[in-house]
Write a structure and sequence with these properties.
The structure holds three protein chains of three kinds. Chain A is an alpha/beta fold. Chain A is built from 17 helices and 20 strands. In chain A, strands 6-7-8-3-9-10 form a six-stranded mixed sheet, sandwiched between helices. Chain A has a six-stranded mixed sheet with strand order 16-17-18-13-19-20, with helices on both faces. A four-stranded antiparallel sheet of chain A has the order 2-1-4-5, covered by helices on one side. In chain A, helix 13 crosses helix 14 and helix 14 runs parallel beside helix 15. Chain C is built from 13 helices and three strands; from the N terminus they run βαααααααααααααββ. Classes of the chains: A alpha/beta, B mainly alpha, C mainly alpha.
Chain lengths: ~525, ~325, ~375
């Protein structure tokens, strides 16, 4: 096998952004007639590395060889000329164009633009592989999986023979994933080189012939998939064996705090995001929310926080004396005015939770700057809070006057969580709090959440890592396509059971609350 | 009785600078560059043509021959506008400076440049004419088509204009076709809608931005040239061009970024501009209110399209934003 | 490694942050470069030596007490407009409508002077004029703000169009108020009674204007930096999503901020008509609504730094006027110099925000520039 000439050979590749070293001295070979999984945790530099093949970034150091010949890929166009096509995680489609217009975009063919001919060719490709896409449809009318299909057809249309897919299954249903994998196998059998970037082990096992592992921007090693197992890959990926051992204290006196009943939410373009969702979150308990991304988790949290319009249903807050107050139809300020202390750690930290260009002090006062009758802001209290958060949560920052944008992901998250917890909430909503964080920071966050639970806070924890959900949460609510597909007891639930509920409705026995 | 046969030709001559400015601006906006320097570019285009033609007329003592009388100002105009276009694209595309600020600076500079040379050309060249009146060149530019006078109303409405009028219409039709139907147009629109996508598709984003701004500026510059040479009969007077550059930008919005619609819309705008002349009862004061109409109508269109929120009639998505590939 | 492989020669990356001293040094350097270019151009058109050019400009801008006062007034007016636009810009709302907002403020002032000049004493008339001007300017800015807040209507284009609606409105009233008839001008309003004229402090007609604008500068600085409103509008400018998340009513902040922006423009119109020109023309704002955009931007929206950036532009304009008068050149000479200065300073932002790396053939890279 080592006598084959690699379709792509990357040697000693390094790339940094400012002080962040995204890749360091990476060597990687990609062969034709093979599916390679590029495995690594979030932030391990997989996407950056592939972006250098796709011409999006240019390496700071190192050399790329295509079919044994040195190549410099300065632009996506040059990448295409080497037969490299990449399907990005964030689709690169022009919304107001049709599928066909997007597909022909950038093709080098000269002469008149013959849309009819292009459309015919697209239809042929679709028939060959069984894609369901209407070339005349505008992108902004399409579903996520349709958009991905367009992306893949686009690469095929250009006859790329080195395909890179960046976490393609993140947005797909299991059936769609199976279909995609079938297509990828066809392409491999056609002699194309396929790279799939992923952090899901079962996908690696299902699809790839070979797996290369990155950790913190460095190449750790490669394995033949059929000769390895999940344990070995995990070890290489995370560096040491994963034993989560997250603390789960017994809930003290759990009483209903938030009662959601028949909640139905539509997005601004009329798509049903939550469909008749009902559940109760208890004080002194962590309620986990599981589901594949985009199953309505964001809308659920935002509806409770007063940021999302609701079509029907109720969200009731239960006071200590047992009286109930309706939260639907109120904005965050009105909810706060009712005396409901509700904290929300949103998924988009710098786009929603914090203001990147402001310093720690100014970010601390985002929630509280209105306090007092004065026309002017009080910066003394938030400054003290910022110093306290930096101190207690071990935020590494030059000073509290540093814009939060300049902090690393984990520190940004500590600032955000620190602020949200500082207001002594009775309800804590959190979305993907540990995404992109290193192990130590993650554990610190779990610890903080558990402390809130002990204080009697009703915690709603939206997560993506099932192992964490199963070890941290008292109950797990599973969302699938905007519906509640089950509520499980965290102590007894099995990973397989949750996985099943995430992908199909009614696949498991709901546990009585 | 409203004198339609008298009105249309006058609306048309008013419309041509707007049409050229609008076509140029549309091309550059479609690729994502909101060039607020267009009014300045039109001044520069006009004065460059004037300088070229002035020097030529001076050198041959008023005895001009047709070809150089057209080519010299035309080339000077295109060159002047091109330089402005290069300046704008260098600052906004290569140096990624804010487009609004750059555009406004270019307008300040361009109008100043036009008025300065318009006012000082005679002194600078040391010639002895009382004012810049390029009547010989203007005669060539405003020569109407054959039979214009023999075909009654038809000739008056369709044939009575100088060649730049027809050039302007042809440019608008070609621009509309290129933007909508060709690969180049598709790529250009992709750059204006979503440069990151265009880049990933292998389209040279910066090249398209440079080209669209420069071609746009050259077309807009012709609008200035038309104004002096044809409309104003070769007489340069400072600030006479007025706010037509801004009106051209308004027209882009009014036509929802479609140059072929601009052909008719510009005549409508031109008509609104001189409408007061054909309303016998209107006073001097109300005529000023009529001049407001194009802007008010544009605002209404702007508001209506944003309210209807139809994706196709929105401004290009990346309009006004710089693009930097390694942004992270 | 193969040296024949072509690698990009210049390679541009975004800078993380630059020390403010270095940033201002770059800006200062570019201004210097601009001044040199201006001197060379002026020297080539006037046959003055480049040094003498600035000698003449100094004389033109600061050569006599009167000239200093005029410079002060021009500075104050330009600064006031730049200040007015700043809160909107901080909110990332491109208010290019300064021109129109100043004009309607001036129009309201002139209307009060003409219609109320005979009936009200100055002590009442001037405050009435002030309120009318501020209200008119604020209203003019709130119209695009309302549509921006409600339907996200493109504010750059909307405010731009509002300028010309205002211009024509003024043109309309100029003809109605024409004096003497047929002149096409309004002439000096209340020339004899001086009704509605701002009082003169000491002997200096412009002192009051300068003092008022100085007060506005300080007030604006405090508003932006220390007030709750200032904090809110910065949050809205950085991220509307964050603003909603913390319960800031984005619509209300947009409209309120543009109310302020327009109000200060209206105030400037009031200063121009009541304090300095005592008449109204369509070119009263004279492009300063646009120059103000650049002044504010050059100063990075910092009110105190705007004093310096407007001084630079006013100095160049006044100096160029002197040169053009002496050498019989056109008055627009100043605009050309202003343009050159602007081009140079705006390109300095590139060097502050980005870093150029020059690649050596071996693939090692050499940072800097």
């Amino acid at each position: 096998m080592e006598n084959r000439v690699a379709a792509v050979s990357m040697q000693g590749i390094s790339k940094s952004f400012g002080t962040i070293q995204a890749n360091y001295n990476v060597d990687l070979n990609i062969y034709r007639g093979e599916i390679l999984s590029l495995l690594g945790e979030n932030g391990s530099g997989k996407t950056t590395l592939m972006n250098m093949l796709a011409g999006i970034y240019y390496p700071d150091e190192g050399q790329i060889f295509i079919d044994g010949k040195p190549a410099a890929i300065h632009s996506p166009k040059e990448a295409f000329s080497y037969g490299i096509g990449m399907i990005h995680q964030h689709f690169k489609l022009v919304d107001v164009f049709t599928a066909a217009e997007n597909i022909v975009l950038g093709t080098i063919a000269k002469g008149k633009l013959d849309m009819a001919k292009a459309t015919a060719k697209i239809r042929t490709i679709c028939e060959t592989y069984g894609f369901d896409v209407d070339p005349e449809q505008k992108i902004y009318n399409m579903s996520v999986s349709q958009k991905q299909t367009v992306e893949i057809v686009k690469v095929l249309y250009r006859g790329a023979d080195i395909l890179i897919l960046d976490e393609p299954t993140a947005v797909l249903t299991p059936q769609e994933t199976d279909k995609l994998f079938a297509v990828l196998r066809n392409m491999r059998n056609d002699g194309k080189a396929v790279v799939i970037i992923t952090h899901k082990l079962h996908e690696v096992e299902a699809i790839s012939d070979r797996v290369a592992i990155l950790r913190k921007g460095q190449f750790i090693g490669e394995l033949i998939t059929k000769n390895t197992d999940a344990q070995e890959m995990t070890n290489m990926m995370v560096g040491h064996e994963v034993k989560l051992n997250i603390d789960r204290p017994e809930p003290v006196d759990p009483r209903p705090k938030i009662e959601v009943d028949g909640l139905t939410v539509r997005s601004s373009d009329g798509i049903l995001k939550l469909d008749d969702v009902s559940f109760t979150a208890n004080a002194g308990e962590i309620l986990g929310i599981a589901g594949i991304s985009g199953s309505g988790q964001k809308e659920l949290l935002e509806a409770i926080a007063g940021l999302q319009g609701v079509e029907s249903g109720t969200i009731r807050y239960v006071n200590d004396d047992g009286s109930r107050e309706e939260l639907v139809g109120k904005d965050p300020l009105e909810i706060a005015a009712m005396g409901v202390s509700l904290s929300f750690v949103p998924e988009d930290r710098l786009g929603m939770g914090l203001v990147g260009s402001m310093d720690l002090t100014d970010n601390m006062m985002l929630r509280s700057f209105r306090r007092g009758k004065s026309l002017f802001t009080d910066r003394k209290t938030p400054r003290e809070l910022a110093e306290k958060v930096v101190d207690e949560l071990e935020v590494s920052t030059p000073s509290v006057n540093t814009p939060v944008r300049r902090l690393s992901g984990g520190n940004v998250q500590k600032v955000l969580v620190g602020r949200e917890i500082a207001s002594a909430p009775t309800v804590l909503l959190s979305a993907y709090v540990v995404r992109g964080l290193d192990i130590n920071s993650s554990y610190m966050i779990y610890d903080l959440i558990n402390r809130q639970k002990k204080n009697g806070v009703a915690v709603i924890y939206v997560g993506e890592d099932l192992d964490v959900l199963l070890e941290l949460c008292d109950r797990i609510l599973v969302l699938c396509g905007g519906k509640v597909s089950g509520v499980l007891d965290g102590k007894t639930a099995e990973k397989r059971q949750v996985g099943l509920l995430m992908t199909q409705l009614g696949g498991g026995e709901p546990v009585e609350q | 009785m409203f004198d339609l046969v008298g009105f249309i030709p006058r609306a048309v001559v008013q419309s041509i600078p707007l049409l050229l400015g609008c076509t140029g601006e549309t091309i550059s906006e479609k690729a994502g560059s909101l060039n607020l320097g267009i009014p300045g570019v039109m001044y520069v285009g006009a004065i460059s043509g004037v300088i070229g033609s002035f020097l030529y007329e001076q050198s041959c003592g008023g005895e001009v021959s047709t070809l150089p009388a057209i080519l010299i100002p035309l080339c000077c105009c295109l060159l002047g506008s091109l330089l402005m276009g290069l300046l704008f694209s260098f600052l906004t595309v290569t140096l990624r400076v804010n487009q609004n600020v750059t555009g406004l600076a270019m307008t300040t500079f361009g109008i100043g440049f036009g008025n300065f040379f318009g006012g000082s050309l005679i002194k600078l060249t040391g010639s002895e004419v009382p004012s810049i009146a390029l009547s010989a060149t203007s005669r060539v530019f405003s020569k109407s088509l054959p039979f214009a006078n023999d075909l009654g109303w038809f000739g008056k409405i369709f044939l009575s204009y100088g060649f730049l009028t027809y050039v302007a219409v042809i440019i608008a039709i070609i621009a509309g076709f290129v933007l909508k139907r060709t690969r180049t147009g598709l790529h250009l629109r992709a750059v204006g809608e979503n440069p990151a996508t265009a880049d990933a598709a292998g389209i040279p984003v910066n090249k398209y931005k440079y080209l669209s701004v420069c071609i746009g500026c050259m077309i807009a510059g012709l609008g200035g040239l038309y104004y002096v040479m044809d409309y104003a009969s070769g007489v340069w007077s400072n600030d006479a061009f007025g706010d037509r550059g801004w009106l051209a930008i308004a027209l882009v919005i009014f036509t929802i970024w479609r140059p072929n619609v601009a052909i008719f819309a510009s005549i409508l705008f031109g008509g609104l501009y001189i409408f007061y002349l054909f309303i016998p009862s209107s006073s001097m004061a109300t005529k000023e209110l009529y001049k407001m109409l194009p802007y008010v109508v544009t605002i209404i269109v702007l508001v209506l399209t944003s309210m209807r929120n139809k994706r196709e009639s929105q401004p290009p998505e990346a309009l006004g934003l710089p693009y930097f590939r390694e942004e992270r | 490694m193969n040296n024949s492989i072509k690698e990009p020669f210049l390679h541009i990356t975004k800078r993380k942050e630059m020390a403010w001293q270095k940033a201002w040094a770059i800006r200062g350097g570019m201004i210097l470069l601009a001044l040199v270019i201006c001197a060379v151009i002026t020297a080539s058109t006037t046959e003055l030596s480049p040094l003498a050019v600035y000698g003449t400009m100094f004389k033109g801008a600061l050569g006599s007490a009167r000239k200093v006062w005029v410079l002060g007034k021009e500075l104050a007016i330009l600064l006031a407009i730049a200040l007015a636009l700043t809160p909107a810009f901080r909110m990332k709302f491109w208010n290019l409508g300064g021109e129109g907002q100043v004009l309607v403020g001036a129009l309201a002032t002139a209307a009060c002077m003409i219609y109320l000049g005979k009936t009200l004493p100055n002590a009442i008339l001037i405050p009435v004029m002030f309120i009318a001007a501020v209200a008119a300017g604020a209203l003019w800015a709130m119209i695009p703000a309302y549509f921006k807040a409600k339907w996200n209507t493109n504010e750059t284009l909307f405010t731009l169009m509002m300028n010309y609606v205002a211009t024509q409105l003024v043109a309309y009233y100029i003809i109605i108020w024409e004096s003497p008839k047929g002149s096409g001008k309004v002439g000096i309003i209340n020339q004899n009674s001086e009704a509605g004229w701002l009082p003169v402090i000491g002997n200096n007609k412009y002192l009051l204007i300068i003092l008022i604008v100085a007060a506005v500068t300080i007030a604006m600085h405090i508003y932006l930096k220390y007030s709750k409103h200032g904090y809110e509008l910065t949050v809205v400018g950085e991220s509307q999503q964050t603003a909603r998340y913390v319960g800031i009513k984005v619509d209300r902040v947009i409209i309120r901020t543009l109310f302020l922006s327009g109000a200060v423009c209206g105030l400037t119109g009031w200063l121009l008509v009541s304090g300095s020109d005592h008449t109204i023309t369509t070119t009263l704002a004279g492009g300063r609504g646009f120059i103000g955009v650049m002044v504010a931007w050059l100063a990075q929206f910092n009110p105190i730094a705007m004093v310096a950036s407007s001084l630079l532009l006013v100095f160049m304009t006044r100096g160029a006027q002197e040169i053009s008068t002496i050498y019989g050149l056109n008055q627009s000479f100043g605009d050309i110099l202003t343009g050159i200065i602007l081009f140079c300073i705006i390109s300095s932002e590139f060097f502050i925000n980005y870093q150029i790396h020059v690649r050596k053939a071996a693939g090692k890279e050499e940072a800097n520039v």
